[in-house]
Amino acid sequence: MKQLKILEFALAALLRRKFKNFAILAMFSFTVAILSSVLSLTHALKEETAYILQDVPDLIVQRVIGGRHDLIPLQYRKEVAAIRGVTGVEPRYWGYYYDALTRANYTLIGTGGTTANLTLLDGHLPAESGQSAIGLGVAEMRGSTQSGELILVNSKNTGVLYEVSGIFRSESRLLTNDLVVLTDDDIIRFFGYPDGQATDLVVTVPNSNEIQTVAAKIKKILPDTRPITKRELIRTYDMVFNWRSGMMLTVFSAAVIAFCIIAWDKATGISGEEKQEIGILKAVGWDTADVLALKFWEGLSLSLLSLLTGLILSYIHIALFNGVILSSVIRGWSVLFPGFQIEPSFPLYHIWLMTFCTIVPYVASTVIPTWKTAITDPDSVMRG
Fold first, then answer.
1. Is residue 192 located within the same domain as residue 315?
2. What values do phi and psi take at 371, rounded to 5?
3. What is the mean pLDDT of the chain?
């Protein structure tokens, strides 16, 4: 009951200095909202990427010429298949297509390069030439429906009409949102690939412990190739998202610095009005522990309210506005993709991290100067 009465008095004290505390609340909430948005967007995109990479092939072999990805001859399949531990080598045909009509990038892939994640769809995959299956983002932007039509301009600048045989509705919008699936023959004709060449090779290695060994052998046998393992892909995506989120935190470091200045100002001293208030409380019988409890509740109430406000603002920013301020930077060039809704993600350890980095230092910076004043003689404090 005593602590509740002290809390009630602390809330009344905060309201008496409402303009100053509102400024602190606004800066505090803005800082938390920015930090929370960056961490949440990064975590959500990492989850989407992890889902996508579940069914990525064990090993992908690309040909590299002049440091750039090039088409790979199909004759390389025999040399790769002869390596011990390899049970299958299949060519993939895919490429990127910029749609000038919608100003978006699509990923066109042949039916031989699809993964298990693409089984959730309405309709069916292309079974014959002239058919296509498209992602939900492509369908929304082009106004296409199942049994509708999709027109794309091929490498010869000629429009090609495809019948839409299915629309993907996968758990991951990032996976299928920009996807257009055609038959392998249609992909070859659309991009004008030469005979006997594919985009890359998919290598199946049942024993995961042998993947790195097989990759090293492929590189030795075929020096102009670049073997890419699933582990390398996962590590690369993690590094990219971590780098981009770190860059965003650096850009908004001004807000963090402003918050640190406020905390430092609170730690280096309190106002004359607050000192007189503490002196009066000591004079009417409050002991040092009660005064410290009062300032503790003041700091905790203000910082906790700021944290909750910041988290709510972050959720609104992501859920309602799709992270419009930050998502384009964290996603990188994928802003050219058809837009997709990012699901807010707030892991418990992120909330604990923000709590420890904001509430704890602020409450400490409120209590420490109060202790210095509370142990001083009340008469000298009130006299200034």
1. no
2. -65, -40
3. 79
